[in-house]
Write a structure and sequence with these properties.
The structure is a single chain. The chain is mostly beta strands and 144 residues long. The protein has a single domain, classed as Sandwich (Jelly Rolls), CATH 2.60.120.10. The protein is built from one helix and ten strands. A hairpin with a 4-residue loop joins strand 5 and strand 6. The protein starts with 7 loop residues before the first strand and ends in a 10-residue tail after the last helix. This is dTDP-4-dehydrorhamnose 3,5-epimerase-like enzyme.
Length: 144
């Protein structure tokens, strides 16, 4: 089985200028949701991991605004690692995907755009609870 097909990197607009580059993101235009919340991670100590959860409904776009880090995604069947290191490339994470972020470079900034406001009830924080939620029940022989 493959990792969820709707997980994908999204190349964002990049306006190049000798004075510096500019990238912009419009909800519903460049990403498949309206942006309800923006947050960022920074000053992550060497060796630390962030994430370690999944969302029931929330969708996200994760960007390495500065530096680099790895995002490990797990849809309950398969894991895949993505290295983010360019500020004009975002990783779209749909609902029901477990995520962990690690290997933060010094000075890195992880920028996240979310489809919903913060709601603790939207989280799976226990991996086994997440796995149970995404598993397709097996039918008994002869049942459909």
């Amino acid at each position: 089985m493959t990792l969820k097909a709707d997980i994908r990197t999204i190349k964002l607009p990049k306006i190049q200028d000798p004075r510096g580059n500019l990238t912009f993101i419009e909800g519903g235009q460049h990403i498949p949701f309206d942006i309800q919340r923006v947050y960022y991670l920074y000053d992550v100590p060497a060796g630390e991991m962030r994430g370690g959860h999944a969302h029931k409904e929330l969708q996200q776009l994760v960007i390495a605004a500065s530096g680099s880090f790895d995002v490990i995604l797990d849809d309950g069947y398969k894991q895949q690692r993505y290295t983010l290191n360019r500020p004009n490339i975002g990783l779209f994470i749909p609902r029901l995907v477990w995520r962990e972020l690690e290997n933060f470079s010094s000075g890195s900034v992880c920028l996240v755009m979310a489809s919903l406001r913060y709601d603790e009830g939207d989280y799976y924080r226990d991996y086994q609870d997440f796995k149970q939620a995404v598993q397709i029940p097996q039918s008994a022989p002869g049942e459909r």
